[in-house]
Amino acid sequence: MSRSDFDAALRFDAGGRRFAGGIALCAAPVATLEAESTNFLSPEEAALLTARLAPRRRHSLLAGRRAAKLALRHVLPGTASRSVRILPGVLDQPVVSGGGAENLQVTLSHAGSLAVAVAHAEACPIGVDLDLPSPEHRAALFEQTSETERRLAAAALDVDEDRRLITLWCLKEALSKALRCGLTVPFGVLEIASLVREGQGVRAQFVNFGQYVGLGVCTAGPSFAVVMPRTVAWTLADGSDPMTTTAQWLAEAASRPPIPIRTAHPSGRAPVGTGPIEGLQVVVPAEGFEPPTP
């Protein structure tokens, strides 16, 4: 039987400055998350699970908080998960407090029944995204990429067009989270300037944000991307590559029987405001940049 939780300690090195972090993937079914929620949700987080919350949003909230708490335990050893709060900020970004958490933050993303989180120092901005390819949204995603970006992706990624398009999307959404603007800016602002193979995935640079670098990987299930300052190098605590390890986790999670969840956006989420994908039903907003839960 495959695992439903995956996590590891991270090390960030920024020109001699070192920061601890953590990365985690949650693939637990909603029944498990519901049953164990009192073990990892703070009272304030539990209060977000109102009866009016849609089932899809309930699952993503639980999975996201579980992944975040797993990631945070690597920088807050010995701290009870329930004592740490992750609540929406003024821009509805996830804000960490309690449990001795000082100058620590998390970046979260969901795709179907999966959630990924990276815990990081506030001094080192990070953004992540996880999304599933979907042929029915190919045209909409195509419109949100430039001819140059599609050519770069075709040269760097030996996968089908749907996976190339969703990987471009992931890289841009991860950048928007690192910038804390979310998908509220014209998508062209987040344009990718270069895309080259690196390990099992790709490395991206951006037209308007040369200070950031993006790393992306395609799997048999979702694509995953992380964006961080280009001066930062990251590894797992044992020195291995986080992107390779995350791809392995996703492959293992994909081996589990699928959990049917109705979605409208490729990831089951929809951007805020005018967003880049028009004409798609808004089901669940992007984690970190979403309207307050009713």
CATH class: Alpha Beta
CATH topology description: Ribosomal Protein L22, Chain A
Sheet with most strands: strand arrangement: 5-6-2-1-12
Mean pLDDT: 86
- β-strand number: 12
Content of β-strand: 25-35%
Figure out the total of helices: 7
**How much helix is in the residues?**
25-40%
The largest sheet is:
5 strands, antiparallel
Order of SSEs: EEHHHEEEEEHHHEEEEEH
CA-based shape: globular
What does this structure look like?
With 294 residues, this protein is α+β, with helices and mostly antiparallel strands. The protein has a single domain, classed as Ribosomal Protein L22, Chain A, CATH 3.90.470. Helix content is 28%, strand content 28%. The protein has helices at residues 30-40, 43-46, 55-72, 138-143, 147-156, 161-179, 242-254; strands spanning 5-14, 17-26, 85-88, 94-97, 104-111, 114-121, 127-131, 192-198, 201-206, 212-218, 223-229, 232-236. The strands form three sheets. It has a five-stranded antiparallel sheet with strand order 5-6-2-1-12, with helices on both faces. Strand 1 (5-14) and strand 2 (17-26) form a beta hairpin. The longest helix is centred in the middle third of the chain and has 19 residues, at 161-179.
